[in-house]
Amino acid sequence: MNMAVDRSGDPLNLVRPDLLGFEGYRSARVAGGAGREWLNANEAAWPNPVDPDARLRRYPDPQPQALRERLAALYGCDAGQLLLTRGSDEAIDLLVRALCRPGGDAVVVCPPTFGMYAVCARLHGSRVLELPLVEGPGGFACALDEVATLAEASRARLVMLCSPGNPTGHLVPLEAIDALAWRLQDRAMLVVDEAYIEFAEAPSATTLLPRRRNLAVLRTLSKAHALAGLRLGSVIADPALVRVLARCQAPYPLPAPSVEQALQALEHDVLEATRARVEETVAGREALRAALGRLPGIRTVYPSSGNFLLVRFTDAAEAFDRLLGACVVVRDQRHVPGLEDALRITVGTPEQNRRVLDALAGAEAAA
Q: Which keywords does the record carry (predicted)?
């Protein structure tokens, strides 16, 4: 007697049906084989003069195990749950391509938020459904019940949450993420972008993965680890989904020098220095927020769990120009619906933060 297999909660239920059996491109490194003389990838026989150690002549390992294990230990997951990507941007793109049928499925986002969610969806031909964040006395928040209702009604395949939010700085409570993932089980994949989580002093959503298989978490070395130039991120999810995403990825996504430097950055003493810098940044953020709040001409300085502050001005154009005049470049948010009077200011060194305050104080004195 044949018994039906219970696949409830299986993230493969959410993958595009035409990709379930998709093998992707099988590169020479993946195909492998034992031997000393590698003549299977059409690589040059001699190194380039700028590469005297001949480290760059070969194609790199698509998913170097040492780096996966080091990051998995840092993020509190298994190596099989982690896929290395070219920053979070590639992870977002892979998730959209693997789960959404072009022209047939939707992605739910909560603006104002990171713009690449909508960009990747639209480039893929997926609908973008927006449910704006709700602004209250304590800052911004996601109306997660409404998010779930919209996702269910539209049969969306992906729900994208940014926590801490960019540019708002708000943090989505872990219990709320858990409840939303449970409600969307077998309906949609919930993606939590934690690019700034190190600055939040809060637990990661990766702690929910053992019981929420429709959850994916994005992490990066770009922010707290000060390695934006390496372009190295991770998507952490159920191993079955990770394998699907890997088959959708380019053959050689990670440059060998980036991998080498990332491994160095994950040594114990370097991680300790990174943690100290994060603490300095958090302290600097709170000091900057308090100082900005004392300046006239500033309407609101929102609480933030990131390494930045979202600030509303009585005259954002004047403030922006004053900062540029002091050679300080900040992120202009005036084109974003609902943030027409706002700028996003990254927390810098004490000297840079002082320059921001002096420029803005000068703006008010001139007014």
A: Amino-acid biosynthesis, Aminotransferase, Histidine biosynthesis, Pyridoxal phosphate, Transferase
Q: Which residue has the tokens 């922010």?
A: 223
Dump pLDDT digits (tens) for 72-129: 999 999 999 999 999 999 999 999 999 999 988 999 999 999 999 999 999 999 999 9
Nearest Cα residue to 186 out of 102, 286, 99? 99
| pLDDT tens, position by position, 246-290 | 999 999 999 999 999 999 999 999 999 999 999 999 999 999 999
Tokens for 251?
């053959």
* Residue partners of 132: CB distance under 8 A and separation at least 6: 110, 111, 112, 337, 338
- Which residues are registered as beta bridge partners of 190? 159, 215
Q: Which residues contact 339 (CB under 8 A, 6 or more apart)?
A: 112, 167, 310, 312, 333
DSSP, collapsed to helix, strand or coil, labels residue 165 as coil
Residue 31: CB atoms within 10 Å:
9
And the tokens for 106? 């939707």
User: Cα separation of 356 and 344, whole Å?
Assistant: 12
What is 11-27+62-265's CATH topology?
A: Aspartate Aminotransferase; domain 2 (3.40.640)
CA–CA distance, 127 with 106 (Å, rounded to integer):
4
Q: What are phi and psi of 335, to 5 degrees?
A: -85, -10
Distances (CA, A) of 306 to 133, 278, 345: 17, 10, 11
